[in-house]
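Exercise 4. Each item below gives a protein and its sequence. For each, produce the structure-token representation.

Item: NACHT domain-containing protein (Salarias fasciatus).
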Amino acid sequence: MASGTNRMQEESIDSPEDGPRNISSRSDVSHDISIDFKKLDLMIRSMEVQERKHSDVPQVTCVSQQSKGANINFSEGTPNCHDWQQERGGSLNSCESRKPERSEAPSGDFMTENHHVTERPFSEERQFQQPELSLTNTLKLLQENINSFVGNELEAVKKLLDPESVEERREKVEVVEDEKILKSNREAFQKIVMNFLKTMKQENLAYCLERKTSSVSQAKLKRSLKKRSQNVLEGIAEARKTTPLNSIFTEVYMTTAGSGEVSDQHEVRQIQVPFSKAERAEMAIACENFFTEAPGREEPARTVLTKGVAGIGKTFLVQKFTLDWAEDKANQDIHFTFPFKFRELNVLKEKKYSLVELIDDFFSETKEAGLCRFEDSRVVFIFDGLDECAFSLDFHNAEILTDVTAPTSVDVLLTNLIRGKLLPSAHLWITTRPAAASQIPPECVDVVTEVRGFTDSQKEDYFRRRFRDERQFSRIMSHIETSPSLHTMCHIPVFCWITATVLQHVLNRPEGGELPKTPTEMYIHFLVFQTNVKREKYDGESKADPLCSPDSRKLIESLGKLAFEQLQKGNFNFSESDLKEYGIDTKAAECSGVFTLIYNEDRGLYQDRLFCFVHLSVQEFLAALHVHMTFTNSSVNLLEKQPTASHESQPEEDPSAETRLYRRAVDVALQSPNGHLDLFLRFLLGLSLPDNRRHLKGLLVEEESSSRTSQATIQYIKQKMNENPSPEKCINLFHCLNELNDRSLEQDIQWYLRSGRFSTSRPSPAHWSALVFILLSSGKDLDVFDLKKYSASEEAFLRLLPVVKASSKALLGGCNLSERSCEALSSLLSSPSCCLRGLDLGNNDLRDSGVQLLSVGLQSPHCKLETLRLSGCLMTDAGCASLTSALTSNPSHLKELDLSYNHLGGEAVERLSALQEDPRSGLVTLGLYPTGPKWMIPGLKKHACKITLDPNTAHKHLYMYDNDTKIITTNASRSCPDHPDRYNSWPQVRSGHGLTGCCYWEVEWEGEAHIAVTYRPQSDTDNSCFGMNKHSWSLSCFANVYYAWHDKHEVIINPPPTSSSSNRVGAYLNWHAGTLSFYSVSADPPVHLHTFRDRFTDSVYPGFGFWNGPGAIVSLCEL
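Answer:
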């Protein structure tokens, strides 16, 4: 390089007569970079002019030339300028005067800020003072250094591009003399080389150089992220007890069934759908597959938004994703992963950063390597905790930013990054609690996922990792399953940690002890345990009652006050200054085990540390404890903001003040539109029990709680449940009753279900809420939910809507539903958390107006119905048009559609047939017939059929009359010929014609009678009493009760509570659906009594039977 430079200098002697000129050097090799050495060149030439006036020694100058068409040969060592000039066929003499040309790209000035030389105007008339010789030597030395730097860097480039020299280069780049200066120079030079290579049509070499350069910084970044992510802190942060992430990480269940819509419900409400249903109804996804190609997407997703309640495992997923990438276990097609936390970005909201500067500040590895362009790399930005973002993301009014090096505020930077204006090639993963998800516009999100927490199997896996002893593990799992509240909350990983911490402590105590059964008991034990750990490990004390310590009491009181007052304001993160306002020492708070530092301190970005409770539920528990302590110790009801009474004027044993506290708490929680005080209320009521108070000895003034207070509170809660609040609020009130150890509603429901009397017992709203709670908690009947098992009415449907939403298939046929139910179903089908895949609405008088309302939900992209039955719903072409339009908008999921027994015209049939043939449609089975005006009769009578009795089957003690439409039992045996079909053992008779399809008939009875359906007998066994074998199904009718019989199995049915009794019964057979339903026709509409479900394999025959004794009558009714 040096020899080449000397030759260039010898041929470029500037004549003193020409005088200095303004000379610009422009590189047109790239539109990205334009190089201007004008300032340096002018200074050197001007000094040379002056020096030649005083010396005969010829002076030289180096003028940068255009490099158009340059060809660099790396195989022959360092390129020299003479070779380049010879190939161009021009002279290196730079004495020619030419005007500077404007560059089409921004000018790049490579003189650093600390070495800037100010350019001065120059003219021939101006006289220069003799500069000092040292300045001339300095500039010449600078020129030599630049030449040396270029030579060294070209040699380094050669080694980078030589596969055999890659590892050697990786070691060398880590040794730098002056990181700041050399980094800047190297970055600029690499850009120059890559742009020259591209102009020389050496794109492969340019790409290879770029990849080799970035791979060095990638390796450094991976090492750094592995160090950050490989361990986690468990328990008290101050102890710095780290655990390898891979050793404790348990997969959580995440689905793509969510949406970007806002959810303002309390987070515990959002996890109450049974996971057994979620696993079948929703499509699971793993975070390592976020940015890979997937069915239905032409290319990998750019932006993924992940929702999940607090403590559900979002941050652990981010940490695991980062660690797997850093350890080369997953996503190796991604070049760089940059995980950020919003709580860390919050402290930068007043500062200005470019995207490159932001990355450099958080990840020094990229700064050291000089990376500032990521357009040609696969980059993933992770932003964890959108709900903690302290600055506004304005997607409508924010300025547009496209330059990764342009500084701006952090909110504008993130807004443009999410919108895809800034670095559109990047991938983004944003995590948030559900309530904050709507901050990101749906059009900016490609995939929405939802972390649902632990499934039952994952929950077992977690506890098995924590409890290696099989006996302890079995006892703990059995204990959790017996408590609906614990079972539900243990879907949240952080609650599993709290539960495991407490149960492990209780089981390992020498004296043993009863395991906590409710969340309140669990959190009391957790507080006592963590306080005890703090006193033993950090305070050096080991008293039996840690809460009796003045320091512990003061800390808990201060934390409780902070929790309650900030819960009212909706604040969940706290600064050191916030803690000082409440007199809380930060170290003591961290050692408490219920409070934690929420960011790493090792990046040096923060002026004030941030803290939070280990989980929102812990803050709610301490808030409830503060309210209870304040009332118990000072008789102040914080929920009313005024003292209830003084100790002098009202004795503590008077329960009225305490009752008013709990009633007020119930009212406040019910008034919350989103249920954010649900857990607070549960904890407060749980703290009212004496058994729970005894664990808090030292915090509460000793008092005797009256049982009248608990009973009064229980009655008040039941009263509120009967005032018809929303199903979600009723479920929480049911949890409150469990906290008060009241199981009366649950026992009532269990009795109703066992006796089969629920549908005829006129349950109260409180009982309906209890039923919802039981069904959702147990997962019972959620594969196929049959509304008729509980009550075939619209009231029952609306009460049990949360259960319908959680079911895979809902059987709602013949349940007297109307437009009101269709509107509710439409909303349900539009919900992303709806699990329904099959829906039977047959034989409900929905009419066109109801179908039109239902169609709104069917066209929603969240609707995943695969089977829909609208048979016999009084639908015409108008309703069919709405239905067809909806299915055209959302055609891919529905596979089976039954529209038989309606009145559809030819045009409607053609549209539906065309829909079935549409390649986008998944519709396989389409039922349209029978159809016509005769099916527009309301109710089941549209399916009326004429029953004709067969005399050859009648028992000899049965007498038929009135054209064989009536049967009466007699003592006398009538004379009748032998016949193989005759019933000889029991007084029974059946029709002569078998039935298939949909048929309805009615009968009236007197005395005692069996109304049945049977196969044609094939043996003597089949001739037994109706309902006592596998081939017949019977309703036994008595004066005050009904019995449903099949294969000797009995179900007791109470008669419907009607003002006037009726002995008229209707029977409806849907042969293809395998159902036989019986109704009491004492009212309009008929009241459902019982439905048999089976699979019919042959024609069935209506039959009638009697108990022994004369006078019982059955009459066939004409419809």
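Check: The mean pLDDT is 77.
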